[in-house]
From TrEMBL:
Protein name: ABC transporter
ABC transporter domain segment(s): 3-239, 255-499
InterPro entries: AAA+_ATPase (IPR003593), ABC_carbohydrate_import_ATPase (IPR050107), ABC_transporter-like_ATP-bd (IPR003439), ABC_transporter-like_CS (IPR017871), P-loop_NTPase (IPR027417)
Organism: Nocardioides flavus (ex Wang et al. 2016)
Entry keyword Nucleotide-binding: yes
Length: 507
């Protein structure tokens, strides 16, 4: 299927999200749509998918102009969309999810689940997806859930597939698997639109690249273009893709964790006997495949886990057994791995989100009364200092792009008097311009003498930020090694293997 978009313009009030965008996608081609968060990429694809109606322009498929009134029309025309946030019902099986909206019936009008299961199996075997049609979606890893989304689209004979930031929730290994799936789909003659802001992925899989900035096409590039060239096109200025930091000026042991154990409701140890130390002015980065205890570790440090044993001592104060409020008041800053669930209240304004963990104390509250003037002054200052791109401080957090949402969280946490910063997936789903900014803030925090724990599934990020690296596997420490440890060694450790000649770095 050949797609041609001509002069697509989409406005939301006075905001022009898409400004006369034109592009062509050929059958058997992976066409990457590259741009910062908020550049207009997803809006353009939502127009294509019938979720929005363009104010100007036209959509042409195989030479015929289309007039979609909704996603149903787009799907009927052969367009499938794999959303960043999966459109699956967790308590349904794979077959039931694939059938949704496209139900087939058998005798006496009963749902023909057997036909749906057969269809899932056929597609799975054709593309090597290895998906069990009878498995409950809630029991599947995130990478497999994404394959279910792809199967849904293919089951409806989609010839054009749109992947909207598909790797935002995937581990590096799952990302590589998705890249291979996209190549298989390309070989099968499918046309693919790949929306992303991750340069490594673009260069690995794209045939052609269209760069969008502030709602406009600013140029096209070949996959042979350098990361620096692509990043500059995305943000409109040169971007530092390397984290610059001096040798750490280490202080005393600040955070001392001994024999930490976190147990889930089923009695399984998610964190199993962790012991480590972070010194003042040091970044300890945690590496590992998602699901090996990283989430439980950060939540235990914040008092968000119920069944915790062992010891967490910050500057001589024991944190185990304290409430989350007491831990925050002890000077722990927390950038959570899911900003939309744990970091922000989408229905609150930027200003309200900036005071969330200080909504009961000075300078925002006096004698039980909210000091709106102090809040607005503080919020306006942080909006400018952290380059949060929004109309004003009264903009709802839920209306911000992902990168700007993350900046609000970072601004809130780093504007307090900290004794420890815990940053979990600090740049997940964030564009290169915002990544550069957030990395600088984390290094500046370390340089001010504050201990920092960074948890990331992006190995590039771990290596770039760390003074030391702690590798986790199944809730246990495989080793704590220098930041210049070869990537091959780190990759081996992430599978649970400890090289014989490995030497831990205690401090």
């Amino acid at each position: 299927m050949r797609l041609v978009l001509r002069g697509i313009t989409k406005r939301f009030g006075s905001v022009v999200a898409n400004d006369s965008i034109s592009l062509t996608v050929e059958p058997g081609e992976i066409h990457c749509l590259l741009g910062e968060n908020g550049a207009g990429k997803s809006t353009l694809m939502n127009v294509l998918y019938g979720l929005y109606k363009a104010d100007e322009g036209e959509i042409e498929l195989d030479g015929e102009v289309q007039h979609f009134t909704g996603p149903g029309d787009a799907m009927a025309a052969g367009i499938g969309m794999v959303h960043q946030h999966f459109m699956l019902i967790p308590v349904f099986t794979v077959a039931e999810n694939v059938m949704l909206g496209n139900e087939t019936t058998g005798f006496a009008g009963s749902l023909d689940l057997e036909a749906a299961s057969t269809r899932v199996t056929e597609i799975s075997e054709r593309f090597g997806f290895h998906v069990n049609p009878d498995a409950l979606v809630e029991d599947l890893p995130v990478g497999v859930q994404q394959r279910v989304e792809i199967i849904k689209a293919l089951s409806r004979d989609a010839e054009l597939l749109v992947f909207d930031e598909p790797t935002a929730v995937l581990t590096p290994q799952e990302t590589d698997e998705l890249m291979e799936i996209m190549r298989q789909l390309k070989e099968a003659g499918k046309a693919i639109v790949f929306i992303t802001h991750k340069l490594r992925e673009v260069r690995a899989v794209a045939d052609r690249i269209t760069v969008i900035r502030l709602g406009k096409v600013v140029g096209e590039a070949e996959p042979t273009a350098s990361n620096a060239e692509l990043a500059s096109m995305m943000v409109g200025r040169p971007v530092e893709l390397v984290v610059h930091k001096d040798e750490p000026e280490l202080g005393a042991d600040a955070l001392v964790v001994k024999d930490l154990r976190v147990t889930d409701l089923a009695g399984h140890a998610q964190v199993d006997g962790l012991s480590f130390t972070i010194r003042a002015g040091e970044i300890l980065a945690v590496a590992g495949v998602q699901g090996n205890g990283q989430t439980e570790l950060t939540e235990a440090l914040l008092g968000l886990q119920d069944d915790v044993t062992g010891s967490i001592v910050l500057d001589g104060t024991e944190l185990v057994g304290r409430s989350t409020r007491q831990i925050l008041d002890a000077g722990v800053g927390f950038i959570p791995e899911d900003r939309q669930v744990d970091g922000l209240v989408p229905g609150f304004t930027i200003a309200e989100n900036l005071m969330l963990n200080r909504s009961f104390r000075s300078p925002f509250v006096k004698n039980g009364n909210l000091r709106l003037g102090a809040l607005r002054e503080f919020a306006a200052e942080k909006l400018k200092q952290y380059d949060v791109r929004a109309r004003d401080i009264d903009t709802l957090a839920g209306n911000l792009s992902g990168g700007n949402q993350q900046k609000v969280v970072v601004a809130r946490e780093l504007s307090r008097d900290l004794r420890l910063l815990v940053a979990a997936q600090p740049t997940r789903g964030v564009d290169v311009g915002s990544i550069e900014f957030i990395h600088k803030q984390i290094v500046a925090t370390r340089d001010s003498g504050i201990p920092v724990l960074v948890v990331s599934t992006e190995l590039d990020e771990v290596v770039a930020l760390a003074d030391r690296i702690m590798v986790l596997y199944r809730g246990k420490v495989v080793g704590i090694v220098p930041a210049d440890t070869p990537r091959e060694t780190l990759g081996l450790m992430m599978t649970g293997e400890r090289p014989k000649d490995l030497k831990d770095v205690a401090s």
